[in-house]
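User: Predict the full complex structure for these chains.
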Amino acid sequence: LDNMRTTNLRVVAAVDGGGAPGAESSMLKVKGTEIRQEISSLARRALGRDALPYFESSFDATETGLDDHATLASQYFNNRKLSIFGGSNEIQKNIISKMIIGL
Amino acid sequence: MNFNHTEDRRMLSDTLLRFIADKYPFELRNAAAHSARGYNSEIWSQLAELGVIAALFSEDDGGFGGAGFDLAVVFDAVGRGLMVEPFLDSALLAGGTIAASGNEAQKTILDGIINATTLASFAHYERSGRYELAAVGTTAAQRGGGWTLNGTKSVVRFAEAADTFVMSARTSGTARDEDGISLFLVPAATEGLTVKGYTTVDGGRAAEVILDHVDLSQSALLGECGTGYPVIEKVIGRGIVALCAEAVGAMEVVRDATVEYMQTRKQFGVPLGKFQALQHRMAELLIEIEMARSAVINAAAALSKQRLERERALSAAKHTIGCIGQKVAEEVIQLHGGMGMTWELPLGHYAKRLVMIDHELGDEDHHLSRYIALGQTP
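Assistant: Here is the predicted structure of the two-chain assembly.
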C-alpha cells in the first residue's frame, strides 16, 4: 500500500510539471485494482463462516446481530468488476507493453 | 491402478446428471435458492426416489453406498448442477451424525431423511469459532430427567425449514476442549428455540439459532455424554470429501463454459482464444483443475484409512480446493469480461459457490495449518 501511494504521487507530480501520463496511468489502474481486490478478498476470508449470510445492507442485518460485517462477501464479488471495467487490466497491459516495448 | 468408477457408480452419476439436464434448469435452481425454504422440496423428493440420498448412507444405515467414492460421485453432480438441495446438511452431516452415534430408536429418523420426508439440519458452528471443531460454547446442563440447552448456533443452513436439528452442546470442559462435547437431537418445534433467517451469498437459506432454556428429554442425547468430538470430526471429514467433489464438478462446468467463450467471443476481429496471453492462462486453469480432481480422489480414498493418514489427506484436499477454487472463480469471471458480472449468466453463480465453499468446514489457511500440525511428531 505504501509503495502504491508513492507511485501515485510520482505520477501526479510528473503530470503536474506539464507532462501527460503515458503507460504510468495504466500501471496505476492495474496495480491499484489488484490491491483493492486483494483487500476485499482478505476482509471476506477473515470472517470465516460468518461471511456466508447475505444482506442488502448492514441495516438489514441488525435483526440477526450480524451487522458489523454484513456485506463483506458481496463487496468482494462486486469488486471483481474493478479489473474488468475502465479498460480491462489485460488492455492496460497491452497499452503498457506497446508504449514501452513498442512492437 | 484403476482410476475408473465402478459400473454402479457410473450409473448413479449418469442418472443424476440426466436428472439435472432434464429437470433442473438454471432458472429453477435460482428460484429455489431464493425461495423461503432455500431449496426445492419437490426436487428433493424426486431425488430421494432416484435413490440419490440413499447413496450417501451405508447399507447398515438404510442406504446402499456411503463410501468415499459414492460421496464423490453424488457431489460431483451436485456441483455440476449448482444444486441447493440439502445433500450436505440434512443427509451427510445431520444424517451421518445420527447414523454414527444414534441408538436404534433415534436411527429410525434416518428413513425420513433418506426418503426426503424429514429435513434435518446440522447445527454445530458458533460465531467466531473460526473453523475449530471443538469451539462449542452452547451448554447442556442436566436438569431432572433431561437436559437444558443455552447458547447460539450460527449460520445454520436450512434452519427455518428443518424438522429437527442435530446439535452439539457442551456438557463439561471449557470453550475449546475436545472432551465434554455432546450431541443432541432437537426437534424444531421445541420451546425456547428462536430462528432468525437470511439468504446466503451463494444461494440458499441459513439462520442464527438461539437457544434459551431449551428443555430436552434424556432420549435427545445422541451417543455417550461428552464424547461427541470424534463423531463430529469423522462426519465433517465426510463433509470435506463432499465439498471438494462439489467444487471440482463446478470447476469443470465453468472451465468448459470459458473454453467455449474463448472459441466464440471475438474482439479485435478474432476469437479471444487466439491471444496467446489468454491461451496460457486457460492452460494454467486446466492444469490446476486436474490437480484439484486428484485431490478429490485422494480424499475419497482416505476415508477408509486410519485417523492420522485420513485427516492429513482431508486437510490437504480442502486446502488444495480452497486455493484452486478461488483462483478458478476469479479467472473465469475475468476471462468473460463484463458478461462475467451479470446475474443472467450462470457462470457468476458458479463462481460464487466456488469461493464460498472455502468458507465451509475449514478454509485453505485453516487446513494448511492443520496439515502441518498433523504431520508433526508428538
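The beta strands of chain A are 53-54.
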